[in-house]
Amino acid sequence: VDAVSTSAYSSPAKSLGDPGITPLSPSHIVKDSDANDAVEQLFLVVVAIDFGTTSSGYAYSFTKEPECIHVMRRWEGGDPGVSNQKTPTTILLTPERKFHSFGYAARDFYHDLDPTESKHWLYFEKFKMKLHTTGNLSMETDLTAANGKKVKALEIFAYALQFFKEQALKELSDQGGSDFENTEVRWVITVPAIWKQPAKQFMRQAAY
Fold this sequence. Notes:
This protein has one domain (45-207): Nucleotidyltransferase, domain 5 (2-Layer Sandwich), CATH 3.30.420. Helices cover 29% and strands 20% of the residues. The chain contains six helices and ten strands. It has helices spanning 33-40, 104-112, 115-118, 129-133, 153-176, 197-207, and strands at 45-50, 55-62, 70-71, 87-88, 90-93, 99-102, 122-125, 142-144, 150-152, 185-189. Strands 1, 2, 3, 4 and 10 form a five-stranded mixed sheet that branches. A three-stranded antiparallel sheet has the order 6-5-7. Strands 8-9 form a two-stranded antiparallel sheet. Helix 5 (153-176) crosses helix 6 (197-207). It is globular. 26% of the residues are buried. Residues 1-19 and 22-31 have low confidence and may be disordered. This is Heat shock 70 kDa protein 12A. Residues 1-21 are annotated as: Disordered.
């Protein structure tokens, strides 16, 4: 079930009711293998999002050619002379706390702002480490922007994942010549093996 709107960045985390973190459920286990095969065939493509500490990206493959892996296309605003298969894990919110940009676009826009204006914008970088270093991680955990203001971590991660979702759907639609629907995609999010259960569940909740 996709609870995040693809039409606008509208604080996707705010509609969540349960602030607690429950253990991961084995949702990948399906007793009826025939039913599982039927579900598999509904997906035309698998998109894997690599949400990294320093940089992030995604890759995808179509179910009819599973051995052919496509890495996301080059990012706008990348550094000259560098093959940009990933973009920096940076995110920028407007002074009104709405999503503005991610990656190179966020980095460059923020650093080009006049200092008197930039202090009103909320810029985050390398924020993924917070999930690993916070001992009492919860759905209420905050992240601190460069200007010292706090925003719910769940909201920032949800914005970031929504950005990748829209980028991937746009690329798939451009490549296929027609609009790709979210229901045609199986989404995969990679997480570090050393992460404890609460951090993994946090990422899952942000994705929801």
